Amino acid sequence: MTEHRINIMDDNEPAVAAGPQPQEKEPQVVYAAVSERFVAFLIDYGVVFIPCQLVGRLVFKMLGNEAELWHYFAWMLLVNGLFILYETIFSCGDRVSLGKSLMGLAVMQKDLDGPLSFVQALKRAAGYYLSGFLLMCGFLMAFFDDRHRALHDILGGSVVVQVREKTFGERALVRALGSLLLITFAWTAYVQFFGKGALVDQYYIRHARKHLRKVAALEEVHKARYGYYTNDLLRLSLLSGDPVQFQRDTQKILAPRGFRIGVTKDSYKISAVAKDKKETRVAYSPD
Asked: What ranges do the domains of the chain cover?
């Protein structure tokens, strides 16, 4: 008798091998390196501060001697407020700041569950300044964290990840650019806060010179009234119309030591020390 075998498998269906099936590999998350983050930060810093610095110089040039110290502090608060707003807006939702976009980075929630909320991004942006106030220790935390999180990341509940893979050449370029920008940033900060071009120091020096011109004007009034110049500042203050305010202005603008008035029959020279960090000596004479 002929044996007939029946195939119960569908000819069009491939046979499935027995045993456990291999699981699909999940894409590996690569956290942004500190050098990449630093370059991105300086780019974003420049986006806000370079235009503001140019506008600020123009504004204070127009104000000239009318610029007061509170104008400088108000301007600094405004600029830093704009930077916080910029970082907040471009770190929440699906938005990315210019610096991070160029570096192929993005800010996400710490559990990688999606983008930051506006409040989280605001806390993160404000955290930049807290990190700075702690003598940059908040930024240095990124070197010791396994996900390169700095203090502002912890405050905002965020991590920074790579969204675009870089070649070896790109990584080397980023490190070199990061080093160059770090040196430039450090030098600019030094000049801004400690060098001759510091805005606050310029204020003190400019107003010290302006005050010496006021003293010189009072010398001319004294000469016209009494026929001679005097080295007595108290006598000159009485001619100002408001001696109390004149003395207050003198103490506010000039250092307590170093004020001198040298008088001859036909001329005089006034010298003083401004209240800038370097205690710059300023002088005025009618010659």
From this structure: 34-193, 199-284
pLDDT for position 47: 87
Average pLDDT over residues 207-236: 91
What is the Cα–Cα distance from 210 to 231, expressed in whole angstroms?
Answer: 18
- Least Cα distance to 155 among 93, 91, 95, 105 occurs for 91
Strand partners, 260: 271
Report CA-CA distances (Å) from 38 to 89, 169, 197: 19, 18, 25
Secondary structure class of 267 (helix, strand, coil):
coil
Residue among 62, 161, 61 at smallest CA distance from 116: 161
Instruction: Read off the pTM.
Output: 0.64
Distance CA 281, CA 274 (A): 6
Q: Residue 268 in 3-state DSSP?
A: strand
260-263 β-sheet, strand order: 260-263, 268-273, 281-284
Q: Could you tell me which residues come within 8 angstroms of residue 109 by beta carbon, excluding any fewer than 6 positions away?
A: 115, 116, 120, 157, 158, 159
Alpha-carbon separation of residue 150 from 16, 75, 139, 253 (angstroms)? 50, 28, 5, 41
Find out whether 139 and 131 touch, Cβ atoms under 8 Å: yes
Q: Yes or no: say if 258 and 209 are a contact pair by the CB < 8 Å rule.
A: no
Question: Measured between alpha carbons, how far is residue 107 from residues 89, 115, 118, 196 in Å?
Answer: 12, 7, 12, 38
- Between CA 163 and CA 246 the distance in angstroms is 63
Neighbouring C-beta atoms of residue 276, cutoff 10 Å: 19
Name the residue with tokens 């407020």. 81
- Confidence at residue 189, expressed as pLDDT on a 0 to 100 scale: 63
199 alpha-carbon distance from chain centroid: 14
What is the residue whose two structure tokens read 């000049």?
191
